[in-house]
Design goal:
Structural class: mainly alpha
Shape: elongated
Number of strands: 0
Oligomer: single chain
Radius of gyration: 24 Å
Strand content: under 5%
Number of helices: 8
Largest sheet: none
């Protein structure tokens, strides 16, 4: 097993798997594997097992919500998977579920600036600028040079100030 720092890396094995298959054919021929019924049956069974796995996994790739739901089921302690699930829920308007996913991500990894930043984006999109400000400040606490968080925090502060000014000037 080689650890590469991501739980969602199956995409990195597609091309190497093709190379392995291309290398296996001449190797099998070189060792003199006869194509008899038994070997053909084993090969057919292996191909059927692979096909069933492909069809099962294909459903998980139907949408961002389904793929990251599967990722969080497989890796519940992955802050990245939880953050991506929160973003996916937010994109489809499932805000309560998005908030829960972001809470899990930031609980698992409290210094995960990207999760705090995306949490802030969700709150800003909902119009909850107070919570957005808190989330952006948390992101900047952990990664002070995160420019998008600085920019969005400035927009939130300007919007909050503008809202206060507009509500205090009645005509």
């Amino acid at each position: 097993v080689v650890l590469i720092g991501t739980a969602m890396a199956e995409r990195l094995f597609y091309l190497p798997s093709l190379g392995l298959c291309l290398a296996a054919a001449p190797a099998l021929e070189a060792i003199g594997l006869a194509w008899n019924r038994r070997a053909s049956s084993l090969l057919l069974a292996a191909a059927a097992a692979c096909a069933m796995t492909i069809f099962t996994r294909a459903g998980e790739w139907e949408s961002r919500v389904s793929i990251f739901s599967a990722a969080t089921a497989a890796y519940p302690r992955s802050a990245r998977a939880q953050m991506e699930l929160g973003s996916a829920y937010g994109d489809v308007g499932r805000f309560d579920e998005a908030v829960e996913a972001f809470r899990r991500a930031t609980t698992i990894m409290p210094d995960y600036a990207a999760a705090w930043y995306n949490f802030g984006n969700l709150y800003a999109h909902r119009g909850d600028f107070e919570q957005a400000e808190r989330a952006y400040r948390a992101a900047l606490e952990h990664t002070p040079l995160l420019a998008p968080a600085r920019y969005n925090l400035a927009l939130v502060l300007i919007d909050r100030k503008s809202t206060r000014l507009n509500s205090s000037h009645r005509t």
